[in-house]
């Protein structure tokens, strides 16, 4: 049976396409804010994993017998979590808060079938945001809004997002939105992909 990707994310689809993974994409209908509220002050890595598992379980519940992959990414700067920007002004506010600080990008993934999580895993990337002038922020948003509206951290690393950083530590796929290398390992372990 074909793997299902429980996601509307173009970045996640692009990663699986490039890696040669066959899948069908079915967005997960989960209330991420409600799940985050239930988790309270859980550490960001745990929240990303929990959201990835919730997405995988939600789609597995309506697709019996299918293996379902869910994923989630969130950003933490100065101990504060940031979701995707809801407007250009929101993105500008985020970028001003990120300026000059280290950004932690937590990305989690989970595989589920028939209501059971069979695997989950996560990864952390650290992106060091350089000092961002107000003038740079506005010109960056002139070029990148609304394309970054669906991107946690207000950036597309493969586009002008790279201009935000003076250094990046971590796996490129984690930065793009999913710990792909760990996901591929799990798919091989589960016999979905050739070992
Ligand atoms: N193109 C691009 N997208 C990125 C980058 N970094 C993060 N993202 C995207 C991947 C995800 O679509 C999004 C993270 O938000 P979420 O984890 O909430 O996923 P989203 O709601 O987009 O989709 P999903 O919940 O999987 O249906 O940010 C990047 O550097 N480039």
From TrEMBL:
Gene3D superfamilies from the xrefs?
Answer: 3.90.950.10
The EC category is hydrolase
Q: What is its EC number?
A: 3.6.1.9
Catalyzed reactions per annotation? a ribonucleoside 5'-triphosphate + H2O = a ribonucleoside 5'-phosphate + diphosphate + H(+); a 2'-deoxyribonucleoside 5'-triphosphate + H2O = a 2'-deoxyribonucleoside 5'-phosphate + diphosphate + H(+)
Q: Where in the cell is it found?
A: Cytoplasm
Q: Which residues form the active site?
A: 72
* CDD domains named in the record: Maf
Q: List, separated by semicolons, the cofactors it needs.
A: a divalent metal cation
Keywords from the named record:
Cytoplasm, Hydrolase, Nucleotide metabolism
- State the InterPro entries in the record: ITPase-like_fam, Maf-like
The UniProt family comment states:
Belongs to the Maf family.
**Reported function:** Nucleoside triphosphate pyrophosphatase. May have a dual role in cell division arrest and in preventing the incorporation of modified nucleotides into cellular nucleic acids.
PANTHER family for this protein: BIFUNCTIONAL DTTP/UTP PYROPHOSPHATASE/METHYLTRANSFERASE PROTEIN-RELATED (PTHR43213), BIFUNCTIONAL DTTP_UTP PYROPHOSPHATASE_METHYLTRANSFERASE PROTEIN-RELATED (PTHR43213:SF5)
For this entry, the protein name equals: Nucleoside triphosphate pyrophosphatase
Source organism phylogeny: Bacteria, Pseudomonadati, Pseudomonadota, Alphaproteobacteria, Sphingomonadales
State the encoding gene. maf
